[in-house]
Every structure is written in C-alpha cells, then in structure tokens.
Amino acid sequence: MHPDTQWPPKGRALYTPEQRQRRDASGWTLVQGVLAPVQFVVFLVSLVLVLRYLATGEGEQAATVSVVVKTLTLYAIMVTGCIWEKVVFGRYLFAPAFYWEDVFSMLVLALHTAYLLALATGWLDARGLMWLALAAYATYVINAGQFIYKLRMARLESGRVDAAIKVAA
Predict the structure, then answer these.
(1) Distance between CA atoms of 43 and 41, rounded to whole angstroms?
(2) Which of 15, 91, 99, 133 could potentially form a cystine with 19 if both were Cys, beta carbons 3.0 to 4.6 Å apart?
(3) Cβ atoms of residues 67 and 18 within 8 Å
(4) Preceding peptide of 8 cis, ω within 30°
(5) pLDDT tens across 28-76, in order?
(6) How far is CA 112 from CA 49, 129, 142, 147, 156, in A?
(7) Using an 8 Å Cβ cutoff, are 26 and 67 in contact?
(8) What's the rounded Cα separation, in Å, for the pair 122 and 153?
C-alpha cells in the first residue's frame, strides 16, 4: 500500500489545522451535509420500489424512475464532493484523507452509469436492470459506510482538538 493512501497515518490527524479551517468555512461542507441524507432517503425509497418490482412484477416504471433519480442525486453529490475536496485538500479527487473512499466511489459511479446506459440502449430487460440497480446500491451502501466512518473520525478528532485548545488556554 502506498504510504499516502493510509489515512490518517499513525499519529496523524485526518485534517491539518488549515484543512479543518477550510472545511469549516466552506459552503460546500453544508451542501454535502444536506445532499448526503437526501440521497439516502432517495436510495431507501428506490430500494423499496426495486424490491417490490422484483418480488411482484408490479411498479416497473416507478422503480425505473426511482433508480434514475437516485443516480442523478449520486452525480450531484459526487460533483459537489469533488469541489469540496478541492477546496479543503487542493485536489478534486483522491486526496490522501479520502483516497479509498474515492476509489470505491468510482465503482459506485460505474455501476450507476451502467444502469443508465443499459436503460438507454435496451441492453438489459427490466429484471436485469433491477438486479444491476441492486448491485449499484450494494456498492453505494458500502461507500456510504466508508464516509460515515470518516465523518465519525473527524468528529472525534475535532473533539480532541477542541479539548487540547481548552487545556492550552
């Protein structure tokens, strides 16, 4: 494993003080904070619709539309996330602090995009499309877990930094 891809390196913080300041000052942080739960709700609704279609054969159009909406919300959070990463870390993708999350995000994007391409070209029938959507959703859940873990690490780190500042004062 490349040393820059293990983050935070042993004994190192997730954010430098400058990165933390940029993160806290950026409006893109709020955008990500709003889009993430919106995307999760869209995912849950779509998941129910896809599973309903696979179980009953009913609601194909609703399930299809829901996967397209889920994919569009994914694109929105990915584009704004790249902008956020550029503001905070100075690069649009693969900043060391989020390297593995970004790598896995590429798989998530690829599967969601494959769904749109298969839908547009007729490459898969409705059931095949729904199974592809479920594969995309499985990767999304793993990726969301990666980001939630990093959010938790950042909050713990912020608490330690705030406590250290109080002790020093």
Answers:
(1) 5
(2) 15
(3) no
(4) yes
(5) 999 999 999 999 999 999 999 999 999 999 999 999 999 999 999 999 9
(6) 16, 10, 14, 18, 32
(7) no
(8) 43
